[in-house]
Amino acid sequence: MDSAELQKLAQHSRSMREAGFALLGASVILALFLYVPLGTRATPPTSSGVGAPTASVGADAFAAVPLEAEAAIVYDLATGETLYEKNADVQLPLASLTKLLTVYAALSLLSPNTPITIPLDATKVDAPRAFNAGQIFSLSDLARLTLTASLNDGAAAIIEAAALQQNRTTNEALASAAAALALAQTYAVNGSGLDVSSTVSGGYGSARDLAHLSGALVAAAPEIALATTLGSAHAVSEGGTAFTVKNTDPMVGSIPRLLLSKTGWTDLAGGNLALVFDAGINHPIAVVVLGSSQKARFTDGTALVAATLAHFAGVASL
Predict the structure, then answer these.
(1) Which domains does the chain have, with CATH numbers?
(2) What is the average pLDDT value for the chain, to the nearest integer?
(3) Interacting residues of 167 by C-beta distance below 8 A, sequence separation 6+
(4) Cα separation, 149 vs 283, whole angstroms
(5) pTM
């Protein structure tokens, strides 16, 4: 690893620590409400389209939520209700949230036990990366490592293997997965979400699309999704090499009943975050933040989770 990459990793590490400290107070507040029973559900909202944030009639929990994000949504995956939205249908760069589509596309074509070989071209993508050419992992293990640590080489290997399965291009494999989920605003030109140029992102989509995609991945591969809620992920290649990677999301220890977590950041996208957590027994909620800053994506996410808990508790705020 050269000095430039080491410097980038050091800067990233400092940013994560700072974000973690900023979230500590919010985490304590959230912990106090882990056992608050769900209150009576409010009347479902009427969608107002793109523009000002909206929330369910009679629910004030989201009214004062300050967000830096350009777009966001809180979507009830159990009922199909939008509890909160801000520009939820605007198409924006996804950064590494694109990897959710990559893994979903692969799982729709391959068994979780399918061996995936790391190709040489995957080892040449921008960091973060962790693998050497020729190493072999099961799709399930590679997906867990890739999503948890947002590994670009893992994403490139996964989508290449999925595309080869049906003699498609990687773009076609990604487009097919998006179409299968009716993600109207979503498309990707690579599996990692890395910016292609100073003006073109590796993936685009809306907050609403990403809420649906996140929920679909939790339903299709709950064990892979659950791995993204831990502080680190572990796997061993077929050659016996052990890997341990750290989670890019410092919030994973503070969100109650978390089912999935994925971060994303590039120059074009800004800071992105997708979460799925259980608001009750079999009651998953998706929270998506797009176009925030590298640090504020976490405080934006924390604020929306706290507001969601308050919403179901029947109070205006925690």
Answers:
(1) 3-313 (3.40.710.10)
(2) 86
(3) none
(4) 27
(5) 0.84
